[in-house]
Amino acid sequence: MSNTLFRDLRFKVFQSGNPLFLYIGVNALIFVAAALLNMLFVISGQGPVIDRLVATYLALPAPFSLFPQRFYTLITSMFVHAGFFHVLFNMLWLYWMGRIFLDFLNNRQFHFVYWAGGIAGGILFLLAFNFIPFFASNTELAILLGASGAVMAIVVATATLVPDFTIRLLFFGDVKLKYLALVYIVLDLIGIASANAGGSIAHLGGALLGFLYIKSLKSGNDWSRLFKRKPKLRVVKNSQPKTAAAAQARHAERVRQEEIDAILDKILKSGYDKLSKEEKDTLFKAGKQQ
C-alpha cells in the first residue's frame, strides 16, 4: 500500500503535467526534508542548523551588496518557508485559485505567472528596502522567503480574469473573486508598516504582475508565449494516402478548438458569468480532456 501511495504521489507531482501538483509537491517536499533535518540537528544539541543555513544561503537578503553573491536566492527563496502554517496556507491558496486559473488558461501561462510573480515580488522587496528610507534601518537584517509572491500573482491574475467568479467561504458565504483579491491587497498595504513588511511588499509585487499579465492578455499580448516551444522541423514521407476518416477527425478538432477559443475570448471581454450553460459545459469538458 505504501509503495502504491508513493508511486501515485510521484506520478501526480512529477509526471502528471499538472503545474499545481508540481509546485505544491516540490514546496511540500522541501519543507518536510528541511524540517526533518533541522529536527535531527536540534535533538543532537547543535541547534537549528538548517534554519540558519536557509536564512543565510537560500532566503533573499535585502542588501544590494549581497546580491552579486546571492543572486540565485531570487529563485530559491520562492521554495523555502518560515514555518508549517506559512507553507500550508500558501499551498492551500495556490490549490484553490490555481484550479480556477487552469479552468480558463493553460499550463504554460500558469508556469509563467507563478515564476514571474515570485520574481516580481523579490525585485519589489529589494527596491523597497534599498530605496525607501522607512526601511533603511532594517535593510541589513531583512530577508525574504516563501512562495507568497508567486501565489499572490496566481490569485490576482485569476481574480482579474474572472472577477465575478464566486466561491463559497466558511463564515462568509458566496464571495466574488474580485472582492477576495481586493481584501488581500488592502491587508498587504496595511502590512507594509508591520514586522512582516518584506512579505507584504512581495505579495504586492506578485499581485501587480498577475494583474498586468491578464490586462495584457486581454489586449491580445500573451507574455508567456516567450517560453512557447517551437516545433522541430521534420520531413515526413507519407507512404499511405490520407483517409477520409482522418481528415474528418482533424476538421472536427479544428472546429472544437475554434469553439473553445471563441468562449475564452468571450470570457476575457465579458466575464465568465456571461457564458451560457452550453458554453460552460463545453469549457468544462475541454478542461477535463487536457
From TrEMBL:
<keyword id="KW-0812">Transmembrane</keyword>
<comment type="similarity">
    <text>Belongs to the peptidase S54 family.</text>
</comment>
<feature type="transmembrane region" description="Helical">
    <location>
        <begin position="181"/>
        <end position="214"/>
    </location>
</feature>
<dbReference type="Pfam" id="PF01694">
    <property type="entry name" value="Rhomboid"/>
</dbReference>
<feature type="domain" description="DUF6576">
    <location>
        <begin position="255"/>
        <end position="283"/>
    </location>
</feature>
<dbReference type="InterPro" id="IPR035952">
    <property type="entry name" value="Rhomboid-like_sf"/>
</dbReference>
<dbReference type="GO" id="GO:0006508">
    <property type="term" value="P:proteolysis"/>
</dbReference>
<feature type="domain" description="Peptidase S54 rhomboid">
    <location>
        <begin position="69"/>
        <end position="214"/>
    </location>
</feature>
<keyword id="KW-0378">Hydrolase</keyword>
<keyword id="KW-0645">Protease</keyword>
<dbReference type="GO" id="GO:0004252">
    <property type="term" value="F:serine-type endopeptidase activity"/>
</dbReference>
<protein>
    <submittedName>
        <fullName>Rhomboid family intramembrane serine protease</fullName>
    </submittedName>
</protein>
<dbReference type="Pfam" id="PF20216">
    <property type="entry name" value="DUF6576"/>
</dbReference>
<keyword id="KW-1133">Transmembrane helix</keyword>
<feature type="transmembrane region" description="Helical">
    <location>
        <begin position="141"/>
        <end position="161"/>
    </location>
</feature>
<feature type="transmembrane region" description="Helical">
    <location>
        <begin position="112"/>
        <end position="134"/>
    </location>
</feature>
<dbReference type="GO" id="GO:0016020">
    <property type="term" value="C:membrane"/>
</dbReference>
<dbReference type="InterPro" id="IPR022764">
    <property type="entry name" value="Peptidase_S54_rhomboid_dom"/>
</dbReference>
<dbReference type="InterPro" id="IPR046483">
    <property type="entry name" value="DUF6576"/>
</dbReference>
<feature type="transmembrane region" description="Helical">
    <location>
        <begin position="20"/>
        <end position="43"/>
    </location>
</feature>
<dbReference type="InterPro" id="IPR050925">
    <property type="entry name" value="Rhomboid_protease_S54"/>
</dbReference>
<keyword id="KW-0472">Membrane</keyword>
<feature type="transmembrane region" description="Helical">
    <location>
        <begin position="74"/>
        <end position="96"/>
    </location>
</feature>
